[in-house]
Amino acid sequence: MTGRLPRAGVAHVPRKRFGQHFLHDPGAIAKIVAAVDPRPGEALVEIGPGLGALTGPLLERAGRLVAIEIDRDLAARLEETHPALTVHRGDVLEFDFGRLPEGLRVVGNLPYNVSTPFLFRLAAQAGRLRDVHVMLQREVVDRMVARPSTPAYGRLSVMLQYRFAITKLFDVKPGAFRPPPKVDSAFVRMVPLRAEALDVRDEAQLARVVTAAFTKRRKQLRNALADVIAEDALRALGIDPKLRPENLSVADYIAIANATRE
């Protein structure tokens, strides 16, 4: 890239490769800031601040803020506009959250093309987090909060509900963004569960069991998990082998993972 860095007053053209849709609706911004309720002294990080619609109000309330922005033009603009802001340039999927203090509060309007891998990355960091408030595609949020025996319930539901208490706070229409996305969005709160609530003995085994089950979600458990656990062992856990993967609770999957841990 050559030439001068962009100035704050120069219009920024959204870049499709970064999935940029900039929040601009004052009502949605106010609801997000109220939901986060940042306070001075808190460790707060904003993911993908973009043009800074949330950055200013968050800084005003918290006094300090760290941001992770992949677009170098926007990172430079944010640093120019908000001298109190610490900006890390780069891909959030590669960022080392160990560089930031524990008790971290995460806020973001996430690019929808990286939302699922980022959510799994957050799950791996859950022990360092105080809470997470993020904007996502509404369909993804519906999967995150889905209950067993519903069409939206799947791998994402189980693996996130194991680590977090998740609350869908409100929907946001496409017109709240520029350019407007083709889908509705939703704002969600995720609060890590206490360590004593995480009673699985091997998280990697839980991931293997859940992935195996939902790879064959239309099959009965005795077939979907045939390579993982025998029918008799399922019955011994009080689980009907004729059920389908979407019928099991998070606790059921934990029980299977614990019973099959090597």
Rg, please?
A: 21 Å
Q: Give the topology string: H per helix, E per strand.
A: EHEHEHEEHEHHEEEHHHH
Multimerization state: single chain
Biggest beta sheet attributes:
7 strands, mixed
Spatial order of strands in the largest sheet? 4-3-2-5-6-9-7
Outline:
This protein has ten helices and nine strands. The chain is an alpha/beta fold.
Question: What does the model show?
Answer:
The chain is 34% helix and 19% strand. It has 262 residues and is an alpha/beta fold. Helix 7 packs across helix 10 (250-259). It is elongated, with a radius of gyration of 21 Å.
Which helices and strands occur, and which strands form pairs?
Elements: E1 22-23, H1 26-36, E2 44-47, H2 55-62, E3 65-69, H3 72-81, E4 85-89, E5 104-109, H4 115-124, E6 129-137, H5 138-145, H6 155-163, E7 164-172, E8 177-178, E9 185-192, H7 203-215, H8 221-224, H9 231-236, H10 250-259
Parallel strand pairs: 2-3, 2-5, 3-4, 5-6
Antiparallel strand pairs: 1-8, 6-9, 7-9
Which short descriptors sum up this protein?
seven-stranded mixed sheet; 262 residues; alpha/beta; disordered N terminus; two-stranded antiparallel ribbon
